[in-house]
Amino acid sequence: MLELKNVSKFYYKKGMITTGFSRVNLKFDMGEFVAITGESGSGKSTLLNVISGLDSYEEGEMYINGEETSYYTEKDYENYRRKYIGNIFQTFNLVNSYTVYQNIELIYLINGYKAHEVKKEINELIKKVDLVKYKNRKVSKLSGGQKQRVAIARALAQNTPIILADEPTGNLDKKSSENVLELLHEVSKDKLVIVVTHNYDQIEQYVTRKITMNDGKIIEDKRIKHHDEVNNTIVVNHKNMRGCSKAKLGIRNAFNILSKFLILTAVYLYVAIELFSIYILFSDSQTLLYESGYNNYFNADDLNRVVIYKNDRSEINETDFDELSKLSNVKDIIKNDIILEQELSIHANDYYISGRIYNINELDKLDYGRMPENDDEVVMGIDMGVDYYFNKSRIEETLKQTFEVSNTYSSLTKKNREIKIVGVKQIDDEWEGKIYATENFINDIKDIYIENVTSTKYTFLGNEYQSYKESFGELVPSKKVPKGKAIVLEDYMYSCKNFNCKGKAINITAKTPYSEIKKTVKVSKMYNKKNITKLTGYKMDDFASAIFINPDDFEELHDRKIYQSSIIIEDKELAQTTLEELKNMGYKPLYMRDTVYDSSYNTIARIFNIVKVAIYAFELLVMFFISYFVIKLVLKSRNIYYSTLRILGCTLKDTKKLLNIELFTFANIGYILVAGFLILQKMGIIHITFFSEAGIQAKLYHFVVIYIVISLMTLLTTERYSRKLFVDSVMNTYREEV
Ligand code: ADP
Ligand code: MG
User: Fold this and answer.
1) Which of 222, 339, 529, 617 is most buried, judged by most C-beta within 10 A?
2) Judging by DSSP bridges, how do beta strands 587-591 and 516-527 pair with one another?
3) Which CATH number does the domain 305-335+562-597 belong to among 3.30.110, 3.30.70, 1.10.10, 2.60.120?
4) From the CB of 205, is ligand 1 less than 6 Å away?
5) Any idea what DSSP says for residue 133?
6) How high is the pLDDT of residue 219?
7) Domain 2-238 falls under CATH 3.40.50.2000
8) Would you tell me how many other CB atoms lie within 10 Å of the CB of residue 117?
């Protein structure tokens, strides 16, 4: 059955050669119960390990069932162990965190059985070794004798023809020892049992053969009694471990040691939190770089704004707007885009806030109050959390007030001056509010703006005047003045012949950045304090010395045609195409994102980002090292478990798989906990300040990328760890630990 011919085993250590045993010649048959005895250090254990296939040998030849083993590879030895050898150790070599049942079940799972189809066999074995009462007790809570009986049951479960026991009673009291030996004796009837012991007297009554070793040599090989012949040796060819068994064991391993479970869960939680916060906040700060900035000419709050005017600076009319609205990447067209450059201030008593004007149609939802019903009602976009007047406790009172509104250039006409705020929209800008107003309100503001930017000069009686609002010589429209005529103050008569200025020409020129309009009106009447109301409809007090003209003439002078507009781009990735299209249509486009791209703010932001990347990278590195070392430390305590698996015949590949599943379980726990919190936060179900920023920014691809990173990290850890764990022969790894 098993034969050794001139087999020697040497240990090489630090240039020294030690002999384990040398030139051993032995032949074993089925049915034998062999005792190997001898002094400590005589080579007994070494011999047993070589027979087990746990250690290799250097000289001679070992045969199993007539087959040579000297050319065996690591994989062949794996196979050999599974098929032939059941080991029992002095130190029991059980999985302490498993129950009695689970320890025996482990063998069946390794050998490719399904857990539920071997229940009966396991229970029978437990009965055989008399441990029924302890079936579900963890092995760590058993006595030495009980442990060794579990080890025997496990060796039997392996269903191998050879059982090797190294000092199986070394740690047991007399009563337990007898028990164990009796069991082994019973088993030896149809197997080959070899027991190493330095206490031969204890075992003498059972054995069929005694081998004595001294200094690595066999000095005695004596037959004690006859053994029954066993004719056909049953060798079971085991299957490979099943996938679901691996999953079952891997997950069981993750949970069965509480301290390890807590530490690894904490490590992976830490990893998941770090990855999520660093990655999400990092990609957010990258966008920040391109999404803010300013230039000196246009309001660049919305970087998707493109200011357009025609190459020939001519009017943009309704036909043009129709064409523009057909462009594919256009979200919005703001015809009177000059309102975007207008900053209005709103005040009541001691309260003041500035803001830009937006069309109420752009507002989809209110956070407080109602939508405007009249043209003097607006909705304020404001940060309600920060603003004193608009916070929850004061808002009601604030909305009861009437506000005054003015723009940067001058106060507005009477009808726009008083407004009511009827609703509030929460925005996150604490510096500038948004004023959502009706189309009519916006048009009025626009008209006033155009009057402000129109420079109106006129010559009258040889002098040149500039028309300033509410000051001397201002041009004022009045319905009572006929077209082409003007009514002037009586005081001018001193400059006219016969004190009569009737028929004198006033040459008016009105200039805007885009156009110049000239018009001549002739004086038809002169007014004084008494007749002013009759002639013009106004009172003297209202004006210093206005020149009244027909409203149509006034409108003609004030060019209210649209020369400049803005479109808001839908998708910034397609912006370049849109800009090209605009150019082909005869426009000069100015893209806000381009105007702020190289602002000094962005230069600083870019440098800041580089520093940030460096810090994040460093933080990640530190995180990987910390977690890797903690995992490694924790896994080191698992060395015994994993080398036990291999002694029991589990292949290297499957052992690695189990380790992978164990770590993946933790990776998933950490990931799911953190991702779960983020999702709940995003859905608004929970609110944890710690997660708030990351929670708002988190996008689907963040979740995917981070899952991949955690998985890769876990694979890498397993790979590195298992390389270290499994380079050595099984016995060396095991020896180091025990
Ligand atoms: P026994 O089991 O009879 O007490 P061993 O088989 O353990 O003896 O040891 C036999 C010899 O081999 C001893 O001289 C011992 O020092 C040496 N030896 C055993 N294991 C190793 C090892 N891992 N490395 C180096 N020498 C070893
Ligand atoms: Mg020994």
Assistant:
1) 339
2) unpaired
3) 3.30.70
4) no
5) G
6) 94
7) no
8) 9
